[in-house]
Amino acid sequence: MSNIEELIQKISQKAGLSRAEIKKKIEEKQKELGFFVNDIAAAHIIAKDLNIPLGRPELKKRPKLTIKSLKKMEPGLSGVGLTAIILRVYHPIEFVREGTKGILAPILLHDGTDSIRTVLWGAIARRITGKQIERGSIISIKQGYTKLGRNQELELHLGDRGVLELDTEAETENFPNPEDEILSLDSLDEEMLEIDVKATIYKVGKLVTFNRSDGTEGRVSNLFLKGERATRRMVLWDDRAEAAFNFTRGDELLVQSANVKLDRDGRPEIHTTRATYITKIGHKTLPSIDETTVPERIVGEAKEKKLAEIEPTDGLVTIDARKGPVSKSSSFTRNDGSTGSVKRAAIFDETSVTTLVLWNEAIPKFEDLGDEPFQIKKLRITMSRYKTIELHTITETEFIQLDSSQIPEDPPIQNITEIRPQQGLACVQGVIQNISEEREFNRSDGSTGRVTSMSIQDATGSIRVVAWNDDVDHITSIQEKEMKFVKIFFGRVQQKDADAMEIHLSPQSHVRPSSRIPVALRSIEIADEEQTTVQSLPDYQKVQLSALSEDEDGVLIEVLGKVVRLFQQSPYYRSCPQCRKKVTETDAGWICQEHQIIKPQIRFRLSGTLDDGTSTMRTVFFGLSGEILTGMGSNDIQKLLDNGLTDDEIFTIVQQEAEGKTVLIQGRVQLQTQEVQGETIQRQELFANRVRFPSPKIIAEELVSELQES
Question: How many structural domains does the chain have?
Answer without folding.
Answer: 6
